[in-house]
Amino acid sequence: MEKVVILGTGPAGLTAAIYLARANLNPVVIEGTEPGGQLSLTTEVENYPGFKDGIMGPELIDNMREQAQKFGATFKNGWVSNVDLSKRPFTLEVNGIGGDITTEALIISTGASAKMLDIPGGKKRISAEV
């Protein structure tokens, strides 16, 4: 059984992972299908504290992930298909990791998904910048 499971690896999920790991709670982070969230698709981020000259979105996500791992967060790549919140410990059915996870606490920080326009050259432009 885990103490804390975090769903989502965007800035909110990774920040939670950093703080929980620093508190020696050994969080397990489920990455899902879009590791890093929308920030992974973002070019220069100029409004994040501590980076006066800005930072590229994927680099910021990588830094946050590495910091969380440094303090003891564990990352698992899978997709949660069902969660039983009716009793503790909570049970999560996770596809891709070979079984269920039980946890005392659950943080859901799944954020949003970008809606790409289906226009000529749209996908080419996005992939060229990332």
UniProtKB/TrEMBL annotation:
Cofactors that this protein relies on: FAD
UniProt GO MF annotations: oxidoreductase activity
Pfam families, per database record: Pyr_redox_2
Keywords (A to Z) from UniProt: Flavoprotein, Oxidoreductase
Domain of life (superkingdom): Bacteria
Start and end residues of each FAD/NAD(P)-binding domain: 3-123
SUPFAM superfamilies per record: FAD/NAD(P)-binding domain
Subunit structure: Homodimer.
Name of the protein in question: Thioredoxin reductase
